[in-house]
Amino acid sequence: MRYSSLLRSDQTLFRDPEVFESTYTPEHLHHRDAQVRELAFLIRPALRGASPMNAILRGPPGTGKTTTVRRVFAEVAAETRRVVPVYVNCRQDHTLLAVYRCISRHLSGYAPPSRHLDDVREMIAARLRERDARLLVCLDDADYLIAAGTYNVLLYQLLRLYEGWSDLRGAGVFAVTSDLALNLYAEADGPVRSVFHPTEVNFWPYTKTEIRGILSDRVRQGLYPGVVPATVLDLVVEMTAGEQDVRVGIALLRQACLQAEEDGRRRVTRKDVMGVVAEVRSPALAARTAALSSGERALLYRIAEQSLSGAEMMAGAVFEEVQDYLAVGKTTYHARLRRLADAGIIDLLHTGKGYEVFLRYAPDEVFAACALGGPGDQSPGCPRKG
Question: Is the pLDDT of residue 120 over 60?
Answer without folding.
Answer: yes
